[in-house]
């Protein structure tokens, strides 16, 4: 079960996905809302926090979550504040009941990761791509449009046609032909 705990929040936050199952994980704790209480509405404990990247809107609640649940955070760059353990490109990360392939996808931020579980067709895309072919901004520090295009291309080549769910860092999740949204984002990012 995957739930967006930030849904309906009226603050500057990323989506915050609770992935329940064998290994209960919070993907991006978000910012400026009581995510600890939101987690506790559904589960008593977390096994880990996994970060798509470390922009403030994605990690503002990280310290509160780590303290409340006594968990560590996993991300691409352990030199970033709050990241306890590295996830390298090509690593496998267990979240819920599935194994996810970690893809290092810079362009929006240097430490950006996407997480893809091939068998159930689930992708956590962070701020790389969004619904309807939108893509992550590149005007912030560490942003680079050419690198972003390369990352979108890598993602598009990696996911299967039967990708069923794409959970993005902002906005709605995509459950109807999400691979098409990735393709459209790649086209749009080139202009």
TrEMBL record:
Domain Metallo-beta-lactamase, chain residue ranges per copy: 13-170
One Pfam family here: Lactamase_B
Source organism superkingdom: Archaea
Molecular-function GO term, any one: metal ion binding
Keyword terms: Hydrolase, Metal-binding, Zinc
Swiss-Prot/TrEMBL cofactor(s): Zn(2+)
InterPro entries referenced in this protein's UniProt entry, alphabetically: MBL_Glyoxalase_II (IPR051453), Metallo-B-lactamas (IPR001279), RibonucZ/Hydroxyglut_hydro (IPR036866)
PANTHER family the UniProt entry points to: HYDROXYACYLGLUTATHIONE HYDROLASE GLOC
Protein name as it appears in the record: MBL fold metallo-hydrolase
Native source species: Halomarina ordinaria
């Amino acid at each position: 079960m995957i739930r967006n705990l930030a849904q309906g929040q009226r603050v500057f936050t990323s989506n915050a996905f609770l992935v329940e199952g064998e290994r209960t994980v919070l993907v991006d704790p978000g910012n400026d809302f009581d995510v600890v209480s939101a987690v506790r509405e559904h589960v008593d404990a977390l096994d880990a926090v996994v970060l798509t990247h470390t922009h403030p809107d994605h990690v503002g609640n990280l310290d509160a979550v780590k303290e409340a649940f006594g968990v560590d955070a996993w991300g691409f760059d352990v030199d970033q504040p709050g990241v306890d353990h590295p996830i390298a490109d090509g690593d496998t990360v267990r979240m819920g009941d599935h194994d996810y392939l970690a893809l290092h996808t810079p362009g929006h931020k240097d430490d950006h990761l996407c997480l893809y579980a091939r068998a159930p067709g689930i992708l956590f895309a962070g701020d790389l791509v969004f619904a309807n072919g939108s893509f992550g901004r590149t005007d912030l520090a560490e942003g680079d449009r050419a690198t972003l295009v390369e990352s979108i291309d890598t993602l598009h080549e990696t996911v299967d046609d039967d990708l069923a769910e794409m959970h993005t860092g902002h906005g709605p999740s995509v459950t109807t032909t999400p691979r098409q949204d990735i393709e459209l984002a790649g086209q749009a990012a080139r202009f």
